[in-house]
C-alpha cells in the first residue's frame, strides 16, 4: 500500500517521516523539489500500530543543470552515454528510506508497487540515485544486472554512498521479473527484534526461577 503526496497534510507527514530519518542517521536533507513526485509506503492493514508510514521515496525529473539536483552535484551522471541520449526520460530518486524495524523482513519489496505506479504514469527509461551501500546491495539482489554501480563509492556521513543507475524500462519489459517483484509478500510481524529480546529475557528469567525451585525440592 502507498499514497502519492498530493495534499498539504500528506506533505507534512512525508516531511516528518523523512526528516526524522535524516536526524537519526545524519543524512543530508535535500530541498523538496517543486516538480518532485513523492510517495509514502504504508503499513499493511493487518499491522495495527500508531504510525502507518513505513518509508518514503521522491522522484524528480533529471536536469543536470539544476543547482538543487540531488545526484548531479555528487556524481556526473550527465557524462554517461545512456543519460546523454535519453535525458528527457531519466528521473532522480531521492528521499528513499525504509524504517529500520522493517529491514530484512521483505518490506523493501513493497517499494516495487510504487515503482510500478510511477513507471505507468511517467514512462521513465532510467532511474539515477546516490544510495547507501546497504541499499545498493538490496537493489542488486532484487534487480541483478538492471541495477548498476556507475562510479566509485562516495564518502557519506555514516557509510559509503554508491552512484547507481536502474534500467527501469528493461525491468518493465521483463514480465516475469515484474511479476516476481510485485508478488513478494513480507513477513506480517512488525518490530521482531524488540519482541524477540523481550521474550528471550522472560524465558531466561523463567528458567532461572525454575532451576531455583528445583534445587529447593531436591534439598
Describe the 3D structure:
This protein has 219 residues and is α+β, with helices and mostly antiparallel strands. It contains 7 helices and 7 strands. The protein starts with a strand and ends with a helix. The model is unreliable at 190-207 (pLDDT under 50).
Can you describe this structure in just a few lines?
This is N-acetyltransferase domain-containing protein. By secondary structure, the chain is α+β, with helices and mostly antiparallel strands. It has helices at residues 8-25, 81-85, 111-122, 133-143, 168-173, 175-183, 192-218; strands at 2-4, 37-42, 53-61, 90-98, 126-132, 147-149, 161-166.
- Can you tell me the CATH architecture of the largest domain? 3-Layer(aba) Sandwich
Number of helices: 7
Averaged pLDDT: 83
As for the number of domains, it is 2
The portion of residues forming beta strands comes to: 15-25%
Features:
alpha+beta; seven-stranded mixed β-sheet; Aminopeptidase; globular; Acyl_CoA_acyltransferase; N-acetyltransferase domain-containing protein; single chain; 219 residues
Topology (SSEs and partners):
Elements: E1 2-4, H1 8-25, E2 37-42, E3 53-61, H2 81-85, E4 90-98, H3 111-122, E5 126-132, H4 133-143, E6 147-149, E7 161-166, H5 168-173, H6 175-183, H7 192-218
Parallel strand pairs: 4-5
Antiparallel strand pairs: 1-2, 2-3, 3-4, 5-7, 6-7
Amino acid at each position: 500500500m502507498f499514497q502519492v503526496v498530493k495534499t498539504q497534510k500528506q506533505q507534512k507527514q512525508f516531511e516528518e517521516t523523512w526528516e526524522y530519518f535524516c536526524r537519526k542517521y545524519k543524512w543530508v536533507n535535500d530541498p523538496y523539489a517543486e516538480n518532485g513526485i513523492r510517495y509514502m509506503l504504508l503499513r499493511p492493514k493487518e499491522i495495527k500500530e500508531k504510525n502507518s508510514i513505513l518509508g518514503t521515496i521522491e522522484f524528480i525529473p533529471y536536469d543536470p543543470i539544476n543547482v538543487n539536483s540531488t545526484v548531479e552535484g555528487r556524481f556526473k551522471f550527465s557524462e554517461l552515454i545512456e543519460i546523454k541520449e535519453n535525458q528527457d526520460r531519466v528521473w532522480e530518486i531521492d528521499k528513499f528510506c525504509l524504517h529500520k524495524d522493517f529491514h530484512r523482513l521483505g518490506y523493501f519489496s513493497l517499494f516495487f508497487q510504487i515503482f510500478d505506479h510511477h513507471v505507468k504514469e511517467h514512462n521513465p527509461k532510467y532511474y539515477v540515485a546516490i544510495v547507501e551501500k546497504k541499499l545498493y546491495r538490496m537493489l542488486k539482489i532484487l534487480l541483478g544486472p538492471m541495477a548498476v554501480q556507475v562510479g566509485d563509492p562516495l564518502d557519506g556521513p555514516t557509510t559509503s554512498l554508491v552512484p547507481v543507475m536502474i534500467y527501469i524500462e528493461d525491468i518493465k519489459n521483463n514480465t516475469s521479473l515484474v511479476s516476481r517483484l510485485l508478488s513478494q509478500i513480507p513477513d506480517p510481524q512488525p518490530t521482531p527484534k524488540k519482541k524477540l529480546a523481550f521474550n528471550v529475557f522472560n524465558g531466561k528469567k523463567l528458567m532461572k526461577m525454575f532451576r531455583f525451585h528445583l534445587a529447593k525440592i531436591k534439598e
